[in-house]
Amino acid sequence: MRTIMWIVWPSFLAAGLLSGVVFALVEPADISIFGYIPVSIEWVYAGGFFLFWVMAAFSSMLSLFMVNTRGNNRLFGNDEEL
Fold first, then answer.
1. What pTM does this model have?
2. What is the mean pLDDT of the chain?
């Protein structure tokens, strides 16, 4: 469980920060999917946040995988080994 929290919590904070920065610069009302399909502002905020969260979680997972403290690359193995 500790390993999962090492991945999820920093990526959640990074997604919150990144979505704040991106949506301060981009107006969600101007975004339309496939040219002519308008999307509500709430869906753009939520979709952007979850997209940023998945990207940051993937980055955190790769970083944790590359730590390789004892010569093994088992990511979800024994928590005491990390």
1. 0.73
2. 81
Furthest-apart CA atoms within the chain: distance in Å: 53
Query: What is the rounded distance in angstroms from the CA atom of residue 74 to the CA atom of residue 6?
Result: 15
For position 70, what pLDDT does the model report?
61
Three-class SS of 1-66: CHHHHHHHHHHHHHHHHHHHHHHHHCCHHHCEECCCEECCHHHHHHHHHHHHHHHHHHHHHHHHHH
d(CA 1, CA 46): 26
**74 alpha-carbon distance from chain centroid:** 21
C-alpha distance across the termini of the chain, in Å: 12
Express each pLDDT in 36-71 by its tens digit: 777 788 888 999 999 999 999 999 988 888 775 665
